[in-house]
Amino acid sequence: MKISSLVLSLIAPLAALSVQAQERVWRCGNEYTNNAVDAQKRGCKVMEGGNVTVVQTPRPGGSASGAGGSAARAPAGSPRVEGADQRARDGEARSVLQSELRKVEARQAELLKNYNNGEPEKQGGEARNYQKYLDRVSEMKAEIARNESDIAGIRRELGRLPPTSP
To answer: Which of 16, 57, 106, 128 is 20 to 30 Å from the Cα of 163, by its Cα?
Structure first.
């Protein structure tokens, strides 16, 4: 009898803590709240049948003018760049990207030439070890795929730059 009363005295506070830890949570459309007054004003429904974890995030600040603008804005505190300076920067970025694109395309042409439609020439001990040859062919194919991905990425970046003015 003494043991069960000891166990009960230990369990009772824990049960009370678990009841207090979970407040009532209301669902208001796509929002959740634990503010009873606000929930009653808005006609929200009580959530039941399990624990609900609500993480509050800060509301984005700012004005209502951002709704109509489609241009990306610079972060607050960043220096303002004049139009001519920005065009010069865009032109420089374009020339760097075009230079990179030429290098990557030349590399792609070399890779495709060496790949020889999946049948590159055997090197060294590959005549006796066919698996070694297959591994090299597989690596070549993967390198060609990576290079194609690089080309696509550079072209995407070039497409994001504003068009050059005549």
So the answer is: 106
Beta carbons of 42 and 28 less than 8 angstroms apart: yes
In angstroms, the CA 66 to CA 59 distance is 15
DSSP at 67: G
d(CA 123, CA 130): 11
**Quick one: average pLDDT of 129-146?**
95
Global pTM?
0.51
Which pLDDT value is given to residue 36? 86
Output the six-digit token pair for 71.
Answer: 């241009």
Contact (Cβ atoms closer than 8 angstroms) between residue 120 and residue 136: yes
What is the distance between the terminal CA atoms of the chain, rounded to a whole angstrom?
96
3-class DSSP assignment, residue 85 = helix
Which of 139-147's residues contact partners 24+ apart within 8 Å by CB, and which partners? 140/111, 140/114, 140/115, 141/115, 143/111, 144/108, 144/111, 144/112, 144/115, 147/104, 147/107, 147/108, 147/111
